[in-house]
Amino acid sequence: MYGNAYMPNLDAGRWWAFIAVFIFHFPINISGALGVIKNGLYMGVDFFFILSAFLLTHLAFDEIKRQKKFNALYFMQRRICRIWPLYFFVVVAAYALAALANYWGQQSTLPPIIYYLSFTGNFYTQPHVFILMFLWSIAIEEQYYILLALYYKTNLFKVPLITLLLIITYIIFICLGHRQHLYTHTLQYLPNIACGIWLAYAMHFKFEWFGKIARWRLWVLILVPLLCYINAAPSGVMQILLLKALSLMVFGSVVAYLARTTFSSNQTFIYWGKRSYGLYIWHGVTLTIYAFVCKSNTFTGWQIAVAFLLCLLATHGLAWLCYRYIEMPFLRLKKHLPFLN
User: How far from chain centre, in Å, is Cα 95?
Assistant: First the structure.
């Protein structure tokens, strides 16, 4: 990142968000209060979307401050170098492995590949191999990259108007009854993008309330159990809107706190946070293999705990390898890309 734009504590936050998503996706049935908490851990994705919008908007303000303009093409170049290599590596590998599995008599369902080539996989809602299903969030990220690039290029400083439009669009979307497959719908995360933009705007202009939000740690501890409880209740318009509002308060506060604090987080968390994209990509692979093994074996007690740790370690190992041999070459290229006129 440019200059002093890098905030290492945010990388540490990425790793913890990945752990939450990993636990949520791990195939194990848990009842009672622990089950409610586990089912609420999917909201780690909410944190990722807020963090992404915050960082990208912060970088856009930083670029305009230094360059006196925002280069949308250069922005997209950087996003392509960051996301596409590993994404398409996994997509191609998944289709190849699925073809082999079908050849060996193991049925595996695949959507038309155009969904994953065009980053619209979040709109394909039919069940298919988990290796690909969880890539819906990457598809939404790519869709937002295009919208954010246009916004940064034309109206970056009209933050109040833009965020208000995003929130109103989301409320209309929910109130009109578009709640089927809500979790993977692009419009579901408009408030998260609005929240991230507002936080970057407040930080850039040194608004006093940004510092106050960063001190809401006690409220975060109180609201997290409430989030999990509401998530477990029957769905409805008011419940969905309340859940979204509370999640923005919680995760927006966490992002503000991590961005504002100057202490250095645990270096291990920062190290793996930089590799969180690979962790997210590969956890689908390891958990798919685990689910396949479970079809012919029954695990209980300590065996499940060992399987969980092995899947987690394998995910970290694959993420490390891919970061070094697939992601890093393109990240180095990203640093040397010229500005496009």
Answer: 23
